[in-house]
Amino acid sequence: MGKHEGEKTGFHVDTWVHVLSGWISRHPGLWTRLGNLETRLLADPLAGVAVQQPVYIAGLARAGSTLLLELLNAHPEVATHRYRDFPFLFTPYMWNRFLDRVPRREGPPTERTHGDGIRITPESPEAFEEMLWMAFFPDLHAPSNSNVLNQETSRPEFERFYRDHIRKLLLVRDGSRYVSKGNYNATRLEYLQKLYGDARFLIPVRDPVWHIASLMKQQRLFCAGQRGNPRALAHLQRVGHFEFGEDRRPVNAGDSSAVEAIRALWAQGAEVEGWARYWAHIHSFLADRLESSPQLAEAALIVRYEELCDAPDQQLQTILEHCRLSQPDAVLDLARRRVRFPTYYEPSFSPEELETIRQWTEPTAHRLGLSLQQRVPA
Q1: SS (H, E, C) 302-364
Q2: Which 3 state secondary structure label does DSSP give 48?
Q3: Residue 98 — very low, low, confident or very high, per pLDDT cuts 50/70/90?
Q4: Cα(188)–Cα(118) distance, rounded to whole angstroms?
Q5: Sign for the pseudo-dihedral over CA of 62, 51, 23, 140
Q6: Its Gene Ontology molecular function terms (predicted)?
Q7: Which runs of E-coded beta strand occur in 219-259?
Q8: Positive/negative CA dihedral, 120, 123, 127, 132
Q9: What is the pairing mode between strands 11-12 and 119-120?
């Protein structure tokens, strides 16, 4: 999905993608069986492929998760999902081998629909893992229910499929380390650690003032893009992105009353307070989990967006060390060239709105080592 040339608000979804993705989303059971068949056919080449120390980038959207994914994707050992994997995500090996054999017209990189300067091609990394979760946990995005998965969660059929999916992705990408970007995994860290005891977690966080400004900007952009364009809305629902747009759904991190209050504020048009309370809801949950689980705290690294922008190569060295990845010069050079504090927008809150943000977010922000400020880009 990308912008049309010259179009300010429209989101474009190709007809073939719309038709095929709709077919796949309506028949998850069929595609799960096809994925399992693919795994059996690949038994020999998969025999030597293991999931070791997977890396999960998980946190609230617009905190720098895509930037982290792009930096880690440049590492020679890393395998990630790519835009080319959609819509046949359930059979990644066969689909990618098919694409490798089909003549394709390579176009120039285009800016993604977020309007944030990130330019993409079919080879760019992307978050598609959520499609697999939705196939096995169909109610995982219901705001009225807790969306938390933890050590008590058990879904053996998903766990086998998920492990084999990652192994096939490592095989087709010729990688040894799987890296996932999934905002919704923020409420599944302990379940993922149960599945992979050696997993490493990166939790991007951001100054709430700037973060909420970015979240509100995206909500306006996505709503405008989806109006009169049902394909755009259907596309995001199929890939499991409910962060923004006409079907915005807050993640329920175990406090249904807080989520209902957030939804009511949004319905009333009280976007600033709604986002501020949602920011506190998600980040309080994360802070609680890290404080209560020494094992999770050891495996997780909080990545503060402002610190990453201020000293990208130094912060990336820390990130790579935490992920137990080597530190190639080319990857560090990419961070120095690529990472900048955004200059295409800045917060424009009133004093009253800033006070609302401070009231709801400051206690949790301090727990995460953040300070609230309306920082002006250099």
Answers
A1: EEEHHHHHHCHHHHHHHHHHHHCCCCCHHHHHHHHHHCCCCCCCCCCCCHHHHHHHHHHHHHH
A2: coil
A3: very high
A4: 27
A5: negative
A6: transferase activity
A7: none
A8: positive
A9: unpaired
Pairing type for strands 119-120 and 55-57 reads: unpaired
Tokens describing residue 122: 């079919």
Closest CA to 53 of 196, 173, 204: 196
Q: For the chain, how far is it from start to end, CA to CA, in angstroms?
A: 32
Residues 111 and 119 sit within 8 Å (Cβ to Cβ): yes
For 205-258, the pLDDT digits (tens) are 999 999 999 999 999 999 999 987 889 999 999 999 999 999 999 999 999 999
**Other CB atoms within 10 A of residue 161 CB:** 19
Rounded to whole angstroms, the Cα distance separating 280 from 357 reads: 10
Here the tokens at position 284 are 């309080």
Helix (H, G, I), strand (E, B) or coil at 7: coil
CA gap 283, 274 in Å, rounded: 14
Element (H, E) at 354: helix 351-367
Amino acid at 320: L
In what helix (H) or strand (E) does residue 287 lie, and over which residues does it extend?
helix 271-292
**d(Cα 152, Cα 181) in Å, to the nearest integer?**
23
Instruction: Convert the pLDDT of each residue in 329-375 to its tens digit.
Output: 999 999 999 898 887 677 889 999 999 999 999 999 999 999 776 54
How many other CB atoms are found less than 10 A from the CB of residue 283? 27
Q: Which two tokens stand for residue 244?
A: 């923004």
Q: What domains does the chain contain, in order, with CATH numbers? A: 2-254+294-343 (3.40.50)
For residue 53, the one-letter residue type is Q
Within 10 A of 47 (CB to CB), how many other CB atoms are there?
A: 9
How far is 276 from 250, CA to CA, in rounded Å? 12
Number of H helices, E strands in the chain: 17, 9
Establish whether the linkage from the previous residue to 87 is cis, with ω within 30° of 0: yes
pTM for the full model? 0.92
Measured CA to CA, the distance from residue 234 to residue 236 in angstroms comes to 6
